[in-house]
Design brief:
About 50% of the residues are buried. The chain is about 45% helix and about 15% strand. The chain is α/β, with parallel strands linked by helices and about 260 residues long. The protein has a seven-stranded parallel beta sheet with strand order 3-2-1-4-5-6-7, sandwiched between helices.
């Protein structure tokens, strides 16, 4: 990968698995100094080490619980203080919650998802914007195709990802004049631990879900990471307040793939 993030300090919130892990490593490959945040310090440090081996000149792995605004503030401050500034941030922390129709969900189910997926992104963006200040920077939030549509059995997850899109657009227009670009990637089915939990490891369900994507397969974390790295880079200097679908054509068909249907 070309060193498109050379001399930039990038933090990744939710960097221990899936898209976050792939993004931290990809940022290292692109020459960035990488700060990895995860609830588990050991996992954050492990991924930071992988980013270093991929090419990051400096790395740091720190614990952060995005449900706590104090913890998020401390994490972002530590990242900026350790390396003198903050040039970019990726907000990937998320949970899928329990799959169930809305009328069977509890208050605790709602809070579990929204506290991480919506409040956590708000806490992170607030701290990142403050750390970047007038120096500018780039923030990429990880949304979902569920940021734009309903999801059966995942009503609160979809609501939380709608919130991520609203936060992205609102903060983008608030901060564009300060040189801070804020965008979102919206993956569809991606080969992550979360996907396997959602589909409960059911091979038939996995094959059926993959066929909903016109490309005919799930995405990889690395494919989402490539889009994120581009949005963080100067190559995307005029891209602000946008969502980039990394979805194999899913959103173009609203999840219906006529080729798969015709194939039986």
């Amino acid at each position: 990968m070309a060193p498109v993030l050379k001399d930039k300090v990038i933090l990744v919130v939710g960097g221990s698995t899936g898209i976050g892990r792939a993004t931290a490593i990809a940022c290292g490959q692109a020459g960035a100094t990488v700060v990895v945040g995860a609830r588990d310090r050991a996992k954050a440090e492990e991924v930071a080490g992988k980013a270093a081996r991929a090419g990051a000149p400096r790395t740091l792995g720190l614990p952060v619980d995005v449900r706590s605004s104090e913890a998020v503030d401390a994490f972002v401050s530590a990242a900026a203080d350790s390396f003198g500034r903050l040039d970019g941030a990726v907000n990937n922390a998320g949970v899928e919650g329990r799959l169930a129709p809305m009328h069977r969900l509890t208050d605790a189910d709602y809070a579990e998802i929204m506290d991480v997926n919506a409040r956590g992104v708000f806490f992170a963006m607030r701290a990142e914007i403050a750390a970047m200040g007038e120096s500018g920077g780039a923030i990429v939030n990880v949304g979902s195709v569920g940021s734009f549509t309903g999801l059966v059995g995942q009503s609160v997850y979809a609501a939380s990802k709608h919130a991520v899109w609203a936060l992205t657009r609102s903060a983008a227009v608030e901060n564009a004049g300060r040189g801070i670009r804020i965008n979102m990637v919206a993956p569809a089915g991606t080969e992550t631990p979360m996907l396997h939990r959602v589909l409960q490891g059911d091979e038939e369900a996995m094959r059926g879900a993959a066929k909903m994507h016109p490309i005919g397969r799930f995405g990889t974390p690395e494919e989402s990471a490539a889009a994120i790295v581009w949005l963080l880079s100067d190559a995307a200097s005029f891209v602000c307040g946008q969502s980039i679908g990394v979805d194999g054509g899913y959103s173009a068909t609203l999840g219906f793939n006529p080729q798969a249907a015709l194939a039986g």
